[in-house]
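Re: that chain you flagged

S.,

Sorry for the slow reply, it's been a week of failed gels. I finally had a moment to sit down with the sequence you sent. For the record, here it is as I used it:
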Amino acid sequence: MISKPFRPPSFVRPNPPSDEPPAKKRRISFEPTRRATANPLITLQNPAPARAPQPHSDDPNERYYTVLWRKYTNKKHKNWDGDGLLAVKGGYGTLTDSDTGKELGKGACTRPLLAGSALSLCGKEVEIDGVIKKEDYMSGRVFLGTAGNTPTEQMKSAEPSYKPLVAVKGPSIGRNKPTRVPSESDDSPLKDRKPAAPGKTFKTPLLSSTVLPKTNFSVPQPRHDPTQPKALIMKRPASAPKGKHIVDVVVDPVLSKHLRDHQREGVQFLYECVMGMRCEGEGAIMADEMGLGKTLQTITLLWTLMKQNPIYENPPVVKKALVVCPAGLVDNWRREFRKWLGNERIGVFVADSKNKKITNFTMGKAYNVMIIGYEMLRTVQEEMQKGTIDIVIADEGHRLKTANNKAMQAIQSLNTERRVILSGTPLQNDLGEFFTAIDFVNPGLLGQRSAFKRTFEGPIVRSRQPDASESELEKGEARWKELVSLTSRFMIRRTAEVLTKYLPPKTEHIVFCKPTAAQAAAYRAILTSPIFAVALGNTDMALQLINVLKKICNSPALLKSKKDAGDTPSEMLQSLLPLIPPNVLNSNASSAKLRVLDSLVHRIYTTTQEKIVIVSNYTQTLDMIERLLVSLSYTYCRLDGSTPAKNRQPLVEKFNRSSQKNHFAFLLSAKSGGVGLNLIGASRIVLFDIDWNPATDLQAMARIHRDGQKLPCKIYRFMIQGGLDEKIYQRQIMKMGLANAVVDNKASASSFSREELKDLFRLDERETCQTHDLLGCECDCKGSPETKIEPPIEVKDEEEEDDSSLRGFGSASQVDMNDQEERIKSRRKAKQPKLKMLMEYRHIDTKHLHEENAKDVDPLNGEEARESSVDADAMALAVDDDVFLNLLKEKDSRVGFVLTKSTS
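Prediction finished late last night. Pasting the structure tokens below so you have them in one place:
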């Protein structure tokens, strides 16, 4: 047999030529189809034994890796279970799942790791993919998948006011949407009219049109002239569909001429968000404070989207828009559309008890906008699904607190991608609600709820605990900054500071009223009763006792009222009423707040021409104040839950137009009319009681300091010194979770510890103000502006080069242990929630004002024996309110302490 010549084995391959593609590699977790981070793989080097530590790190071998992991298996063909992250520090490695953020385990890890290295850790097989930077791991960016792959120029720093960002390429505007042929109704009623026939008289149109006349030019022509002064031009998309051209979108001058600078920026921001130019979603959150014109900005956005499209000759972006708001604001939205656009330009369908035929909006062409309340939306949810909604505006969006909210589910059933939340109170204090709002406007942008909780909520909450370690502080701060950076792409927040040049000055007084002897006795009687001991171990009883004490703070006589007896169980009332003397229950004379209010309204009525708004959370309290005004023969209006919706706005307009003699006071229920109302007819407002939810108080305070206000505004917040009112206020300022748990009276047993309840119910009858004592402020309490806390020793987030002693690599003789401990304590102290915002106020103890009026006089010569230590002019400047200052000087004034702040 003739042997064949030798041939090399088939598995030996020569080197491929340079023009051939490289061989396929194993799929890694950085491919676009995976949860990729933006960091490429980096070749790892073995750390040398004597290598110096990395800058700003205590551990020279501290490293962070991306890995693949799987459980142990005896299968021949093994697959990886998932992607993960490995943090090696202090000789231990911590493995975390990239998808869920769940920590899989921890084990010893002391050997060098290279790309491709395999190791066994916490019962898992792990293979190293690559290395990542420490700041990427600490910030949590690597846990967000595609949401974290944001170009650096797209990130926005956390600033108090929004500034336009650098243009970033966005997706094509016409993605996955069919092209529609423009109809005759697209430009109605402002479409171009044909010239009048010869011999007929030309009739001037009813509306002045700002639309540019059509020409035969091949160049795309915008709807409005972009060269006009102060023209508001929207950002252009990065690309257009094949065969299409991009045209400028210019806001209608009918609206843009009324916009202030911050409103113009807000409209541009919202437009970029809903057009998908800022992030992967098409939603936005406008969290501007009250009074900044969120309604006008929204109307401008809707009108622009309904009439224009950045893709030339394409139909408008939006055909049908839905505005969902509290029932009390439905009529307000209707008036705002009529105010800015009139009745002819746009069709607005208001869904109420009279207009229930939803098909008029969903199927008809006469209406472009539908306004509906949250409650009614749930009842017409199925009918709404029959039509197509292009955009949803959720006003007072903080109502959408939970993912199980029925109103939220109704909106989500409409399958509308473009969603905008309007809320004057940002949702930063409760990260669970914050995630719900983000996931509502841009679903899936921050991943799953469980992963968000582990990656962001858990580390941030732990870092704010008093016993947080240095590593927890560092991690929590990095995660918070990353979260703010990510959400700033679709959330805009401006404070009332932008209105300082448009509105008159505002002065806010926090008034601590000393309880009367009868009021304090009633308070003590409740706390010494057997009910109190039972309440400490029962959350439901504690909530009922809280309601009782809040009524005592307003007036003990409110306990006897039968109108709202359902607020507290009859058994509790039957056991508590005998503890209070009948003369106290039958008269409101024991109410310290009512005495202060009596003196205040009398001085305002007799010395000024101003009007006042009085706000309470309880109709019982409004009844008590109403009886006071009647006894003084002062005229008033009243708006509460019993006021029909159709009568509310006429009532507000009548009050704003009338004089002090005709309508001096406006009694307002915070729950019924705390939002949306414009009570600029008054320049003073009293918050008679305080609410657990800070948003309720802030919204009520904004009723008078709004556009159109001509007079300086004075705001008074009443609370009983040392009582439950003051404790609630402290928790508002310190942003503790206790307040959020009580807002809806649905607190769980774990919401209150026994010590928290004891502190909450304790009546502090000292002469000093407890809130001021907690500040640690050493001012003289005479209203001097030098009430500032000394700043802690400054410690930079990144260690300085010469600060080797803090890293532990200097000689022992060079280390100042006291200084090092002080720096660590100061850094931790600066990160803890405090009452620091109260240092912006001036602190006034009214006993100094009484000393000024009670100067000793020598009876022989009539001369003053001693001079007062109070500077009257300085005190008047601090209070900035002559009417209130004269009240404080009264000998029998029940005001013990005042915190005051003025924007003037």
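What I noticed first: The chain has four domains: 22-46+55-148, 162-168+221-445+491-499, 589-765, 769-796+822-904.

Talk soon,
D.
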